[in-house]
């Protein structure tokens, strides 16, 4: 296997992990929250936070590293054409991921507190949860756009 094909294989595997973890995080938290049980929400959020650390963040780093390495190996300019748009979209997705991780940490504390106090999930939990869901929806659309950009080599910003 050539070095380029190794990079491409790792890049595709990281993309699959990134999308899969993002979708499963949303599914797990949404399903748990429907129960309106602090313990279920705390367990789901613990799962989400763990998946982010073990799978999503490393996949994100691997996507960037292998993407840039493939561009370098093939001589593709980073700041022109479809790749520049993809890099901007990746930066935006990384920002959304950072915001979502901060919300998840706060949501986990609120859910664990409610579980410990044997109370219902507080209004603050539901407010933050709505923000998290909105970020997740936007991020999911961004991930799908990123996949379309990479597969179709579509330019998002012209050129």
Summarize the structure in words.
The protein has one domain (3-152). Helix 1 packs antiparallel against helix 2 (38-74) and helix 3 (81-116) packs antiparallel against helix 4. It contains four helices and no strands. The protein is elongated and about 60 Å long. The protein is mainly α.
What is the strand and helix layout of this fold?
Blueprint: H1 3-34, H2 38-74, H3 81-116, H4 123-152
Summarize the structure in short:
The chain is mostly helical. Helices cover 85% and strands 0% of the residues.
List low-pLDDT spans.
none
Number of helices: 4
Briefly note the structural class of the backbone.
mainly alpha
Rg: 18 Å
Mean pLDDT: 93
Kindly report how far apart the N and C termini lie. Answer: 32 Å
Notable characteristics:
0% strand; mainly alpha; 159 residues; 85% helix; 4 helices
């Amino acid at each position: 296997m050539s070095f380029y094909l190794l990079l491409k294989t790792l890049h595709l595997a990281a993309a699959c992990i990134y999308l899969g973890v993002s979708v499963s995080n949303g599914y797990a938290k949404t399903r748990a929250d429907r129960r309106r049980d602090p313990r279920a929400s705390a367990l789901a959020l613990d799962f989400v936070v763990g998946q982010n650390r073990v799978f999503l963040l490393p996949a994100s780093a691997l996507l960037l590293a292998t993407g840039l390495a493939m561009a370098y190996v093939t001589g593709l300019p980073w700041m022109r054409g479809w790749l520049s748009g993809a890099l901007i979209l990746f930066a935006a997705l990384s920002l959304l991921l950072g915001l979502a991780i901060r919300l998840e940490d706060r949501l986990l504390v609120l859910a664990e507190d409610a579980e410990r106090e044997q109370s219902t999930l507080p209004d603050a939990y539901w407010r933050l949860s709505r923000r998290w869901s909105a970020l997740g929806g936007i991020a999911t659309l961004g991930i799908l756009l990123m996949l379309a950009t990479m597969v179709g080599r579509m330019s998002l910003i012209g050129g």
